[in-house]
Amino acid sequence: MSHPSPSAAPADVLASSLQDLGFSSYEARCYVGLLGQPSQTGYAVSKRTGVPQPKVYEALRKLVARGAAFEVDVDPVLFAAVPPKQLLDGLSSHFQERHRGAREAAERLDIDTTVAPVAAVYALDSASSSIAAGTAAISRASRRVYTSASPDEMAQLLPALEERRDAGVDVVLIDFARKPVPADGMRVFRHASTENSIYRHHQARHIAVVVDSVETVYAVAPGGDNWDGVRTRNAAVIAAVKGMIKHDIDLQQIYADFGPALVEAYGPGLQALEKYRQDDTSERTAGDPGSAVQDTSLMG
Fold first, then answer.
1. Are 6 and 16 in contact (CB under 8 A)?
2. Least confident stretch, 12-16, 193-197, 293-297
3. DSSP secondary-structure letter at 268?
4. Spatial CA neighbour of 175 closest among 163, 166, 184, 183
5. 295: how many CB neighbours lie within 10 A of its CB?
6. pLDDT category, 295, cuts 50, 70, 90?
7. Is residue 161 within 8 Å of 183, Cβ to Cβ?
8. CA Rg, the chain, in Å?
9. Where are the alpha helices (DSSP H) in the chain?
10. pLDDT (average), residues 59-69
């Protein structure tokens, strides 16, 4: 079910929350409709809440059975709400008892603890699904989020990153844009090591997000159009993506401190580091740093 925004009317938030706790929509609406009112007939509750008359008495009697309301035995029967604090305290106590019972039962289960847990991996096959998955993951961050993305994708992720920054989350990102990302309050690392270099895969796009070390989204479009990616809570994939982002950050910090010496050793964009990926033909020209044509960054 959809939930009202935090700025919604308290009555709407209460009704939605009661549904999360197991009340039906009609029960929640009837309960809220009873609050702050003298005891009412079912007809009056129906008029006040919009719950259909054929359903209102069923919902009210279920509220009575739950201990959320009580009947005044007159003719016609009247209904009144139990005060919210009393109701919620009772629900909390009931939930804790059920939770304790479930935990005790789980601990007594004879299960094979050697069976590896399954972590689902969901495929992403478009820019829109990758952006949506990255934005949703970022919105769940409570401690730290690492983000690396090509410029257009980073611009679309930025509002979610700013919202998490304002909520006190540590935001770490790699900025590939020529014009610096406006990211006050975030830890931004400029990806400068490949500037002023032309690569075969310069049109590549990517998104890499790691949230609280428990969730990751990683997607790439090597040619710029056809996306292939995943979102998952698999620990091995999370570690790989996080390690890749942190390695790229480390390289940019080294480049910031020793850039001229690195360019002298490896050529513009550090392209000579690519010798291990060259075929036999390109290896014969490896003495020329410009002969390497592939990008070691997340972009290629």
1. no
2. 293-297
3. G
4. 183
5. 21
6. very low
7. yes
8. 29
9. 10-20, 25-34, 42-49, 53-66, 84-108, 127-139, 151-166, 235-266, 280-283
10. 95
Torsion-angle region of 168 (φ positive above 0: left; ψ -120 to 50: alpha; else: beta): left
Q: 78-81 and 69-72 as β-strands: parallel, antiparallel, unpaired? A: antiparallel
Q: Do the beta carbons of residue 227 and residue 123 sit within 8 Å?
A: no
CA–CA gap between residue 177 and residue 298 (Å, rounded): 13
pLDDT at 26: 96
Mean predicted confidence (pLDDT) in 193-201: 53
Q: How far lies 194's CA from each of 180, 229, 268, in Å? A: 15, 24, 7
- Which tens digit of pLDDT belongs to each residue from 218-230? 999 988 889 999 9
pTM check: above 0.70: no
> Which tens digits make up the pLDDT trace of 89-104?
999 999 999 999 999 9
pLDDT for 7 equals 67
For 143-171, the DSSP string reads: SEEEEEE-HHHHHHHHHHHHHHHHTT-EE
Coil/strand/helix, residue 4: coil
pLDDT score of 284 more than 50: no
The full length of the chain comes to 300
> 54: cis peptide before it, omega within 30°?
no
Q: Are 296 and 274 spatial neighbours (Cβ–Cβ below 8 Å)?
A: yes
Q: Which of 201, 197, 198, 180 is nearest to 189 (CA)?
A: 180
